[in-house]
Amino acid sequence: MSTNYKVNANKTFEFDITKAAVLSLDAIEVAEGKYHLLQNHQPYHIEILKSDFNKKKYIIKVNNNTFELDINDDLDKLINEMGFATSSKKTVDSIKAPMPGLILEINVEEGQNVQENDPLLILEAMKMENVITSPHDGIIKTITAIKGDTVEKGSVLIEFAP
């Protein structure tokens, strides 16, 4: 399998680049996450603002212009063609108790906007505190859990607005 990358910048521009082209760049790291690049006698100052290596998503600044990059390789393309790609939007509409336990704390309110991985509540089970986090960005529609109540496995604790 060759090493080609499809780069999407700001969900607007898409271009292909090879590993050989990346390796041939005249770039110098001048500080952690900051680079100086010379391409066709033009200087570029590049700074990596945020990176998610596993999701292959980066936010970079090039000469004071910010770009969100999504990078896919040949394996990603093959996975998409075979229909094994996961949906980019999670469709979880409620949080259910993963086990029986006691609600120790509720960290959100109805109508509140939450981000993926924000702590929603703490469920004590088997003398351990389990932080239940949001599976995606969304708005809390209803909270059926009550601090101090015991819940059964599978009980709906929080619902998200559609």
Automatic annotation (TrEMBL):
Keywords: Biotin. CDD domains: biotinyl_domain (cd06850). PROSITE patterns: BIOTIN, BIOTINYL_LIPOYL. The keyword Transmembrane helix does not apply. Residues 85-161 form the Lipoyl-binding domain. Pfam families: Biotin_lipoyl. Coiled coil: none annotated. InterPro entries: Biotin_BS, Biotin_Carboxyl_Carrier/Decarb, Biotin_lipoyl, Single_hybrid_motif. PANTHER family: OXALOACETATE DECARBOXYLASE ALPHA CHAIN. This is Biotin/lipoyl-binding protein.
